[in-house]
Amino acid sequence: MRVNKTDQLRVRLTKQEREALENIIIERGQNETISDIIREALAWMIHPETSKVPCYLSTAMHKRVMEMSRDLNRDKDHVVEDCVQGVLDLLDRPDRKPLVVMELHLRREYDSNKERLRGKAPAKGKAS
Asked: Which of 17, 56, 81, 123 fits a 20 to 30 Å CA distance from 90?
């Protein structure tokens, strides 16, 4: 991905600042870079009124969330909240399937049936 130079930011860090940022990365235990930490800090400074807390996912989990987001036609943050709520629901009622799981099953079944019906329909302009 090519980024315009006017949208790039270069920052000089002291050795202590770099070490402090690296310690934050280690403490968080996620696959992050110093740039990720700086972007998060800037977002919090620019939008202090926001009630959202950033959620960092591994690349594989992010891909799965994006797939579910597409399937459910929802924002990825909403999908993550639904998944967490599903886990909490399981803790409260282990005998019931979480709502987000039921919704995904229904959506995928609906889309599968829709695709199957499209495949069976005769092509336009051809005699059957």
From this structure: 56
Report the C-alpha gap between 57 and 104 in whole angstroms. 20
What pLDDT is attached to residue 128? 43
Using CA atoms, how far residue 68 sits from 51, 64, 73, 78, 88, in Å, is 24, 6, 8, 10, 19
Q: What angle, 0 to 180 degrees and rounded to 10, lies between the N-to-C axes of helices 59-72 and 76-92? A: 90
State the pTM of this model: 0.51
Query: Which 8-state DSSP code applies to residue 31?
Result: S
Does position 60 have pLDDT exceeding 60, yes or no? yes
